[in-house]
Amino acid sequence: MAGASLLTLLDDIASILDDVSVMTKVAAKKTAGVLGDDLALNAQQVIGVRADRELPIVWAVAKGSLVNKAILVPAALATSIFAPILVLPLMMIGGAYLCFEGIEKIFHKFSRHLPEETQQHEKENNSADKPAPNDVDHERVKIRGAIRTDFILSAEIIVISLGAVAHAPWSQQVVVLVAIALLMTVGVYGLVAGIVKLDDFGLYLIQKTNIVLMKIGRGLLVCMPYLLKTLAIVGTLAMFLVGGGIVVHGIAPIANIGETAASMIGGGFFGSLAKLLWSLIVGVMLGAAVFGTISVFLWFKNRIFHNRPQQPL
């Protein structure tokens, strides 16, 4: 009897593990798109830092990502039980923040083209109000920004995964969310670490005597700057796509516009492309609206209450 009970218990455990494995695969498939965006966004965070500091920065952001997920997994489970109505609004706020960050990056990218007097004025303000940044401060800013962005993307991954296993028992939901959190963190930051060290690998190959390996090494060195620039562009676009996608899926009238455009095209690949383009447009418009609102608020705050010129965001 005891042996039969043990076999039954082992069979139940095997069934549970099999269910968890299947649900984890489903959740991973649904979050694959966000995973690609997460990879692009995080790879660009190490652009512009010294080669010997690339991996330490990736490791610091990875640890911050684990902390994010350690907060988000229990919070998502608790919210789904006690306040499921808050899940969507919180996602919308996160999406708006991502779109704002995208516009902010574009603004700072093109602010170098401001009139000479404005650039000189900003330079004087910066030199008068704060010391010149050093490498440590620059790294801290990058790490904090990357961890903030990771928090939004991790929240979306966790919420999507939670929706994929909503029908499962609570214990299995916990196992699946923890597994997804760990797999996504290791996968994303492992790939980021590999990408940023491709140039070092290229230098290593150049030192070999084999002609083929030397050519591969030179090719990696030539392609690496273009790869990083491409990732920077893709990362910014990903902010709009993810943030705009959250809003599109969360507000039915906005989603209907994308569905109508897709149906007019005829569905299929071009229909999916139309939906993606609509998410991008919504993301850019939302980011511009948030950025403009914050800029106007800061302008009034500085002009009226402090009577001094507006500081750049």
Characteristic key phrases:
313 residues; mainly alpha; 11 helices
Give a description of the structure:
- The protein has helices at 2-30, 32-43, 54-82, 87-110, 116-129, 135-164, 170-196, 198-206, 211-250, 252-265, 268-305.
- By secondary structure, the protein is mostly helical.
- It has one domain.
- The chain is globular.
- It starts with a helix and ends in an 8-residue tail after the last helix.
- The model is unreliable at 1-20, 26-33 and 114-132 (pLDDT under 50).
Percent in strands: under 5%
Helix content: over 70%
Average of the residue pLDDT scores: 75
Spans of at least 5 consecutive residues with low confidence: 1-20, 26-33, 114-132
Note the main sheet: none
Count every beta strand, where a strand is a DSSP E run of 2 or more residues: 0
Helix-strand makeup class:
mainly alpha
Total domain units: 1
Distance between the termini: 72 Å
Report the C-alpha radius of gyration, rounded. Answer: 23 Å
Order of helices and strands: HHHHHHHHHHH
Shape: globular
Q: Number of helical runs?
A: 11
Short summary of the structure?
The chain has 313 residues and is mainly α.
Reconstruct the topology from this structure.
Blueprint (H helix, E strand, L loop, with lengths): L1 H29 L1 H12 L10 H29 L4 H24 L5 H14 L5 H30 L5 H27 L1 H9 L4 H40 L1 H14 L2 H38 L8
Helix pairs in contact: 1-6, 1-7, 2-6, 2-7, 2-9, 3-6, 3-7, 4-6, 4-9, 4-11, 6-7, 8-9, 9-10, 9-11, 10-11
